[in-house]
Amino acid sequence: MCPSAAQSGPIGGLCRPASSPQAIVAGCAGKNGAALTDSSTACGMCSGSGFFLFRGGCYSQTGTPGSSICTAVSNGECTTCATANWLFTNPTNPLTNPGTKCILCSDATGDGTTKGVANCNTCQAPNNAGPATCSACQDGYYKDSNGACTQCNTNSCLTCETSATQCTSCPEGKYLNGNTCVDGTSNSCGANSYADKRTWTCKACSEIAGCTECAYNDNLGGPVCSTCSSPNNLVKTAIDGTTTCVAEAQCAALNTDGTHFLNQAKNKCLLCSDITTDASDNGNTGVANCKTCQKAADGTNPTCSECLDGYFSASGACTKCAANCATCTSADMSTCTVCLPGYFLKTDGSNKECVPCDNVDKGGREGCSTCSNTNAFKCTKCKPNYQQSGSSPVTCTKTCEDPTACGGTAGSCKAAVLDDKGVFHYYCSLCGDPTTFPINGLCTKDNNGNTCKDGVCTQCADGYFLYMGGCYNTQTTPGSLMCTVAAGGICTTPTGQYFKIPGATDKQQSVLACENPVGTAVGERAYVGVEDCKTCEAPTAPSPAGMAAAKCTACDGSKKPTGSGYGCVTCDTSNCKSCVADGVCGECTDSHYLKTEGSTTSCVRKEACTGGYFPKDESTGGNKCVQCSSASDGGITDCSECSLLPSASRSSTPLVTCTKCSSGNLSPLKNECMQNCPAGMYADSNRVCLACHTSCASCKDNNAESSCTACYPGHVLNRTTDSSPIGTCIPECTGRYAENCADGQCTAVLGGSKYCSKCKSGYVPVDGICVSAGTRAPPTGCTPNNDGTCSACTDTYFKESGGCYKAGAFPGNAICTTATGGSCTMCVSSGQNLQGQSCPTCPVGCSKCSGNSGSETCSECLAGYYKSGTSCVKCDKNSNGITGVPNCVSCKEPSGASGTVTCYVTQTPTVDPTDPSVNKGGLSTGAIAGISVAAVVVVGGLVGFLCWWFVCRGKA
């Protein structure tokens, strides 16, 4: 996953497939937790412990580079950004987009409003939503007058300021001369200057005091003067090769020991060891390997007073000591007292030897260039291609196979090659000397027919292949470790530890190590390996762009490939076939089921899929124990305990019947955990929905006929007492609800049932019942009119259709939930907070709705109705592909708005459809028992009559 082949990736800055163990541990998922595929390009959220979302990727707060971005994390989001001048904290709160708490100075997207500046390096955060102010641009860009970062002229400058051509540094192989980059050849740096390879700048020869002409010397690593500015001065070359301009008196004096002697005939200051001469120069020749000397008179040869290290004086000449010895009195090794630099003196009895500092077999240390052996061996300096750490002694760690560390250029020894033992070795990817090229991992003058320039190769010849800036031959090491056959500059047959990059040309890297997670790009396509992978299969090129990873077939050490092949993990779970992360099983062996409990996985037998789990057989991916609450796997949302349905009764979902819910109420069909039980049901102490009496739309704690708290449309609640919340349901406009109601005035509709809207003289309608106007006057509910209606309501009552109804109590709760000062303040139908206005009226069967009158859209239905499109339809009626159930008074529309409604309660005959005692004829056991008793009575009566007829009448 990566936004594009050229951008950083989602897991710790590296591109990873969604099924890789790194992505799984990070909890990388789509927005709102949606599952990703291996072709996905970015994360939308991060649920892994300690991970946070940043620029489409998941980063660990304790890892690199996450710790440099964020210092505190909560719920997959960074809560405190790190303090850094290249990063700023988004001042917007709350954030408009996830993962935008911390914004890079260079991030020109940000959250869409608050953002950085493209190609900016350091910046100042905005005070409010908006762009940051750039302080300094990234290398290769300059800050223009508009505050934007504009690219330097890539043909001339590496970095610049104020304009695209005002260079401050140059590309490899070019030298900065003022504000211009030059090629460093001939006199491009100008007269009296030289091209300095140490700083890639043009410098004045006058750095050597009194020098006017000079040149850079590769062996010395600095300038060598050839002409002094004063005609009276001479160029003096020291033993180490450095030069100075001196007067004759500063060169040498007659009959005085010194390191130089004066050749007056040539007007030169020469080293004592200088033996160069010509026909006119006889009498002015030094002594080979001499360190100090003196001349008795002009025109005579100097005599040597001390020899260079490694030589001893004999008969006026300097004779070489034994091998690698610096101080001796004869050519015999026994007289050696000090070894040359890079060697140490080893004494074994009477035998002496000067041993290279890096000779491990004889007591040296690998990579050591300077050492001592007084009392004990001590390395004091490492070779250029070794990293030095510690002090007195130092430790040397090899970082480059090239002895010169590729010319000493920083970051140039980065071509990692894996050997047949699984160890990485590093070779030159860039040569410090632009006239040398990385061929077979070492910097050489001969490009062997490959196309190379400025220290790198860009195209390889036949038999070679391009790899990390260099060309490699398949017939020699290290090229043979990566590829066995190359044709046309492309590796065609990689070794088992490498894979061929699809679509690579002879100008692109064509091979990559199976365990290289950084990867390489070919155009808009990126390819990566898998960490700790030993052998692999090449990926297929993504289309049209994106990232593709190799599929690992074998891992290093004891690790195993994941099921997808995109990771190598430790997998020691018993009976586990493959893991998805370290110690996290992803698939069990055929006879076992994968059980996940929190972050722990195990492989168990089928009968162990209990305690909130059920077994599920899978044709692919392995069998597993599924949590009862996993709806996506055939479970039921919020279900905490369940049992597997018999095969014959399973539909596509669910696979189980629920026996207990975590927080909701168990539906009467045991196929759902509900926030509220359906109409006609109540939740018992175990949160199981049980049937009320069939006349009740809702009830309190039992199924008694007198325990109703609400009725179905067309019926009203006849309370046990005026203050009681329970009662029996009777037909509308009957009983107490008809008493003292004016003729034809049972017309007020609340919750689908009719109530009296106008009473006879002396009475007023309160909660749908006509009560004495005197007993229900303020503050008890109604302010009477003289016509049997209420002119206003008081306290928590509201006015509706001529009467006053208590908000939040049946039947007023069908319209209003709260009222203050006699007016409804919160309507049921719209959820609106009213200010003295009436609640909107919804269509028939609808309890909540929105929209203009005549074109309302129902969002919730009354008891006895189901939702069909924008309307509510009775449970026993058909509508728009939905089939009702005869006699059903409590139901729910089918999912997908097609099929038969789910019926919870029927009224005629009196049947609970979920009761297991219902027989095939639709009668309950209670009904059957009643019929049986009636039959006994009838039969008993008939027997009694016959007995009387034949016996009693006979006697008569």
UniProtKB/TrEMBL annotation:
Segments passing through the bilayer: 927-951
SUPFAM superfamilies xrefs: Growth factor receptor domain
Domain of life assignment: Eukaryota
InterPro entries with a match to the protein in the record: EGF, Furin_repeat, Giardia_VSA, Giardia_VSP, Growth_fac_rcpt_cys_sf
Residues in EGF-like domain copies: 104-150, 151-182, 271-319, 320-355, 356-397, 399-444, 570-604, 641-690, 691-730, 732-771, 841-873
Membrane recorded as keyword: yes
Keyword Membrane appears in the UniProt entry: yes
Stated name of the protein: Variant-specific surface protein
Keywords annotated in UniProt: Membrane, Transmembrane, Transmembrane helix
